[in-house]
Amino acid sequence: MWEYEFTAEAEVAPHAVWKLWADPLGWHTWNDGVGEVVLNGPFAVGTTFTMTPPGQDRIQLTITEVTEDRAFVDVAEGPGITVTTYHLIEDLGAGRTKVTYRTEITGDAADELGPRIGPEICGDFPDVVARLLDLAATSTL
Fold it and tell me: What is the pTM (predicted TM-score) of this model?
């Protein structure tokens, strides 16, 4: 297994972060690595979507967990690997929120492919979370 986690805190309401996450068609406005998203249903467990990062091939993902204002999980599968990304919100009280992005790469090829593709998948997490929190802090929700 290969894994990476990034966490940041900010003075922002958990719901403001959630509203941005629950709108996959708008992810490109704060995440440069997303590109085009095509959602095949509601933002709910079992819904599949495709994401085409700029200059890369389309990726098929499935939403496997959704807990409003708390978390969502998406999974992409490829030959010998499963890439699971956890998007977590923790209300710290006093107007502060902690956001965590965690990716786990599992499967028969995880030990071989994880160190190669993991940093590519997760390398922008600090920037993505910073932009997410900045936008959530200025939203008018």
Answer: 0.94
| Whole-Å CA distances, 19 to 67, 80, 135 | 12, 34, 11
Token pair belonging to 73:
């999980």
Counting the structural domains of the chain, the total is 1
Contact status, residue 31 vs residue 132, Cβ threshold 8 Å: yes
What is the C-alpha separation between 114 and 126, in angstroms, rounded?
A: 19
**Coil, helix or strand for 139?**
coil
Structure tokens given for 26: 């708008």
| Rounded CA separation 133/141 (Å) | 14
The CATH number given to whatever domain includes residue 116 is: 3.30.530.20
Q: Which residue segment(s) compose the domain that 48 sits in?
A: 2-138
| 33-80 residue pLDDT tens | 999 999 999 999 999 999 999 999 999 999 999 999 999 999 999 999
Sign of CA dihedral 128, 140, 65, 88: positive
